[in-house]
Amino acid sequence: MSETLIKARDFSVGFKIGSGFFGKQVLKAVDHVDLDIEKGSFFGLVGESGSGKTTLGRALLKAVPITGGSASYADGEVDYDLTTLAGPELKDYRKRAQLIFQDPYAALSPRMTVRDIIAEPLEVMGLTKTREETDARVRQIAAKCRLNLEHLRRFPHAFSGGQRQRISIARALVSGPKFVVADESVAALDVSIQADVLNLLKELQRDLKITFLFISHDLSVVAHTCDHVAVMYLGRLVESAPTRELFKAPRHPYTKALFSAIPSLDPDDRGRAQKLIGEIPSPTNQPSGCKFHTRCPHAVDRCKKDEPMLEHPGDGHEVACHRWRELLESAAA
Amino acid sequence: MTALIEVKNLTIQFRTDEGLVTAVDDVSFSIDKGQVMGLVGESGSGKSVTAKALMNLNARNAVYGPESRITLHTEAGPVEVLKLKTARDLKIVRGGAISKIFQEPMASFAPAITIGDQMVEQLRLHADMSKAKAKEISVEMLDRVGISDPSRRFGQYAFELSGGMRQRAMIAMALSTKPKLLIADEPTTALDVTIQAQVIDLMKDLVNEFHMGIIFITHDLGVIAQTADKVAVKYLGRIVEEGPVREVIRNPKHPYTQGLLAALPKLDDLDAPLTPVAGDIPSPLERPTGCVFHTRCPKIVGDVCKTALPHDSRVDASHRVACHIHAEVPA
């Protein structure tokens, strides 16, 4: 039986914005999300910009305040309640949970050598006592990320995008985290290099037993790397399933639309996609009922009034849609 | 079919503190009326510099090779783009017969001027028309690209529009002068997949309607497969393979094109391993000798790759590749 590393229930993150006539408005970036991330898994989180995927990732790292619900982290050594975590325990959590950023050009200080960049977390967290010890840890993780000693002496500007991303990864992993949030970590890379970084992340997951939360808008990348995928729309989790199951038989109309919007590599397969109309609504002015009803081709009156809850049909394939069973049957018929 | 624009032996270098840097090396291609050409390659392959040259837009430190020629065929006869000097003459390639849409629609609109004023301004620069007429055409174009409530949007600023809407407004603006050639530089890269699909559809409709030529610059082969008629694959400033989009994607001949396709995650086969193209793209300051791709090529045939520049070989009438593997045996 596999263990759960991250368990979130009714998890919400809201930001207070502006001060209107009726007092402060709250932007619900993440809205009552239930999430279980299994230990050692490669968990994918997909959605369009504005869906709240980045905010969810950061809130799990305690980088933005959690405003509602519960979340816990249990790696076998420690058991933390993320909503109340503070003081020395929070400091300890920082070693266990790390973030890899999207843009390898912006994330590395141009005035530090690669060695210093990778060593910085060790020094800040006080994980090593002597310089020799620090150097040893840096060399060890650098080798894992396929960086050699020569690289460590140089400055980031001397590296290409793929190499920079490997430096960011080494920096995130040097403190020995158990849980790593990779936020659009390959989005800024060329296709030819992207595959290399993805393979590296998978290797690290296996070798170092790290649990990844992989946030991406690129479904084909997610399909190839993740074990389990959750789809977000306007702060809500609309579908969650093992990768193969999700790609074989998506249940939510939004997931189906996302899949069909991926440009096919087959030139003869043009224009067969079922296109979504319009754009994701503004999070400050969210639709009533099911948040997807404004763009959903199958919306009925009920969708405008009642918000569907995430259903757990028992096969591990969760979906939040009033009509998914009905649509499944009509598709089979 | 008549060629709309012909590029011959285009070589572009930039004067920098570290010496001359080659961005585009001996590139030739042509685009017909109503044809969509995809230009693919990774960052540093010189895609954008090539596109800028078509509008003579490269910075002052650009040095064009002596044999470089770009000929635009207009109703009034051929125009040598690289020989244009004055702002007055350049108008024909900058918004007149050639328009461009950029990757970042937010950065391409002036933030403090309304969308409408910017559209009217450029229309009046290129065509002799009254303000009222220019406004009428602009609103009509906004409507045409699927922006709802166009007369209200006309008076709004770029920040008031969502990402997809901004990109549509950008396309409306580029097309309002009825260009013969549209350069689309990564027009969908900053967009979400669902919006990307809408923009691709829109561009296909517009090609059918206005019958213009399009250069579609992207690193996404999926987008190319969905839009282009023919495709040119660039690496380090050189075109390594060119041909009809079906041919190049189904039957790639150059090891680099093959590598790009293998590196792409495919949805119909989740078990297929992702194969990266080994190594990194070399710095333009350290251009490899011989074939520019030999430092990363898995199929090197011998020293010839390191010393001699491969010439174009014909796969068939419309498909060419520059690789020693396919070098024609001299008769």
- Helical fraction of chain A: 25-40%
Rg of chain B, Cα atoms, Å: 21 Å
Number of domains of chain A: 1
Q: Give the overall silhouette of chain B.
A: globular
How would you describe the shape of chain A? Answer: globular
Residue-averaged pLDDT of chain A, rounded?
90
- Compressed to H and E, one letter per element, the order of chain B equals EEEHEEEHHEHHHHHEHEHEEHHHEE
Strand tally of chain B is 13
Order of SSEs of chain A: EEEHEEHEHHHHEHEHEEHHHEH
Outline the low-pLDDT stretches of chain B.
none
What's the N-to-C terminus distance of chain B?
32 Å
User: Helix count of chain B, per DSSP?
Assistant: 13
Q: State the CATH topology of chain A.
A: Rossmann fold
Which stretches of chain A of 5+ consecutive residues score pLDDT under 50? none
Spatial strand arrangement across the major sheet of chain A? 6-7-8-3-9-10-11
Content-based structural category of chain A: alpha/beta
Describe this structure in words.
Chain B: It is found in: Cell inner membrane. Chain B: This is ABC transporter ATP-binding protein. Chain B: Belongs to the ABC transporter superfamily. The complex is a heterodimer of chains A (333) and B (331). Chain A is an alpha/beta fold and 333 residues long. Chain A has one domain: P-loop containing nucleotide triphosphate hydrolases (Rossmann fold), CATH 3.40.50.300. Chain A is 35% helix and 23% strand. Chain A has a seven-stranded mixed β-sheet, with helices on both faces. Chain A has a four-stranded antiparallel β-sheet with strand order 2-1-4-5. In chain A, helix 3 (114-125) packs parallel to helix 6. The model of chain A has no long low-confidence stretch (mean pLDDT 90). With 331 residues, chain B is of the alpha/beta class. Chain B has two domains: 3-97 and 179-326, Rossmann fold; 107-178, no CATH class. Chain B contains 13 helices and 13 strands. Chain B has helices at 47-54, 87-90, 92-96, 105-108, 115-126, 131-144, 150-154, 163-175, 193-210, 221-227, 245-250, 255-263, 304-307; strands spanning 3-16, 19-32, 36-40, 62-64, 69-74, 77-80, 98-101, 181-185, 213-218, 230-235, 238-244, 312-316, 319-322. In chain B, the strands form two sheets. In chain B, strands 7-8-9-3-10-11-13-12 form an eight-stranded mixed β-sheet, sandwiched between helices. In chain B, strands 1, 2, 4, 5 and 6 form a five-stranded antiparallel β-sheet that branches. In chain B, helix 5 packs across helix 6 and helix 6 crosses helix 8. The longest helix of chain B has 18 residues, at 193-210. The radius of gyration of chain B is 21 Å and the shape is globular. The two termini of chain B are 32 Å apart. The model of chain B has no long low-confidence stretch (mean pLDDT 88). The interface between A and B is large, with 43 and 42 residues.
